[in-house]
What does this fold into?
Amino acid sequence: MKGRELLIRYKSSFEAGCDEAGRGSLMGPVFAAAVILPDDFPFSVLGDSKKLTPQQRERARILIEKYAISWAVATADHHEIDEINILNASILAMHRALSQLKPPPDLILVDGNRFKNFQDIPHECFIKGDGILAAIAAASILAKTHRDEFVVKLHDQFPQYGWASNKGYATRLHVEAIHRWGYSPFHRKSFHLNMQLKLF
It folds into this structure.
């Protein structure tokens, strides 16, 4: 989806898009980003992050970080995910990213259908919002690129799991590596207890 098809503004000129990445992964933190875009941002670079190539995402990331009015990326780690579950950890990471925006937005646009009130700022949720609203698309791109960068670096310490290619998701190689090598210190234990690794 091209940027010209995204809704550039929803209700406010100072609204923040918010999205997460890594929610379904078997390992590592969940990443969240919050972004406030200016009216003169080059919106044509934006789109649903899952449909953009890695090169397109990296180009968009550079422009978002350079021209956004404010942006932030935050995480909730695998220990927090195991303790409070992935939904609550995702919202916690979003709140942490939103808390870094200066000045704060007057409206929060969230990808998905679940969120918890943040301070006294109104929010609205959008299923598949990263393909609908420009601010959410920008947040999705930042969350995904920052998380991918983290996972690829972590791959060097644990190459047997193939994280550079599977990004921590439950591919056959990843699951077979867990069967062979056991869990790394970065795996989410609550996910494995639930799935019992019977994926293939």
Remarks:
- The chain is about 40% helix and 15% strand.
- The beta strands are 15-21, 30-36, 70-76, 107-111, 123-126.
- Residues 1 and 101 are 27 Å apart (CA to CA).
- The longest strand covers residues 15-21.
